Amino acid sequence: MSKISSFLVVLAALLLVSAAPAAAEDVVVTQYKADPSGAAFAVAIDKGFFKQAGIDIAGVISGAGGGTSVRSAIASDLGFGEVSPAPVISAIEQGQDIKIVYLGSRSLADNVVIVMPNSPIKSVQDLKGKKFAISNPKSLGEMTAVLVFEQAGLKPDDVQRVALGSLSGALTALENGAVDATSIPGILFLARGGESKYRVLLGPKELPLLPPAVGIATSDLMQKHGDKLRALIAGRREGVKFIYDHTPEAITILSRIYEPLPPKDVETLVRQLVEAKFWSEGQIELQGLQNAVRAMKYVGSLEKDVDLTKIINTSFLPADLAAIK
After folding, report:
1. pLDDT of residue 188
2. What is 225-282 written as a DSSP string?
3. Which position among 23, 104, 231, 306 has the lowest Cβ density within 10 Å, counted as fewest Cβ atoms?
4. What's the pLDDT at 2?
5. SS (H, E, C) 92-133
């Protein structure tokens, strides 16, 4: 083969590589089908918002929660995930090279604090000296509990926190009278019977400001593939805006994600969260993260304060969202 022919073969191969479409990628989202924080990803994939922004997201890998989801995000091909802030803060404190790059959901509006219908407890203040069920120590459920107590003017130890190993275990203990109250995600609340079976002590709009989900990225993703990260954030933002602006169609999309929860229950949940402004377009709200740090100290997962500005990178957000509130 002549030198010219060899050159043309190599050139053709290079052109084929450069013309090949970018491979579709998956994202890690903690408790994807059990926690509505990740709803914007479902909507953005369905409506093609990620492709419009410049990245092909094929699907979502549901993280198991806690530190497991953080580790899964770090180890993923993208080096990206939407996870709970507490294990992120802990991971960074332990030396993991990651940053919080956007706020996913703003509050605990996806949860409810419940008692049994015949309970004498009428307010959170009535829980003083009583038992509150949580799944595990240092969990989001325990952090929710201590902030709920604080909001009501109680000290964290005014109410006994009882770890039952799972949310189902907490509900069983409540139903059997072994504990007096618990907090559970709205999806589980509706799936287990909702207001026909339990009485809501605190509803979505009454719960403390504690973000259930933040977006994280590895340094490798930020330094080498910043365009992908910007596209991810932009596509997800369009998903959030669609939920707010086209709620009925978003409910139809999300009803497929949250099966076997009946569509009418999905509608109830989504409309409550829309009213509570649960989903964030991405702008960092410092108060919620400060509450997370305080709750982590209450439950013993942090020993000292954290300089949140050092673990946040807003440079990949659109300009109108980049300022920290």
Report:
1. 86
2. -HHHHHHHHHHHHHHHHHHHHSHHHHHHHHHHHSTTS-HHHHHHHHHHHHHTT-B-SS
3. 23
4. 53
5. HHCCCCEEEEEEEECCCCCEEEEECCCCCCCCHHHHCCCEEE
Per-domain boundaries in the chain = 22-107+210-321, 111-206
For the structural domain made of 22-107+210-321, what CATH number should be given? 3.40.190.10
Q: Which two tokens stand for residue 97?
A: 């090279």
Q: Output the CA torsion sign for 147, 149, 154, 159.
A: negative
- CATH code at 111-206: 3.40.190.10
| C-beta of residue 78 within 8 angstroms of C-beta of residue 221 | yes
Tokens of 145: 């509990």
User: pLDDT digit string (tens) for 95-138?
Assistant: 999 999 999 999 888 899 999 999 999 999 999 999 999 988 88
CB atoms within 10 A of CB 17: 8
Q: How far apart are the first and last CA of the chain?
A: 65
Report pTM.
0.86
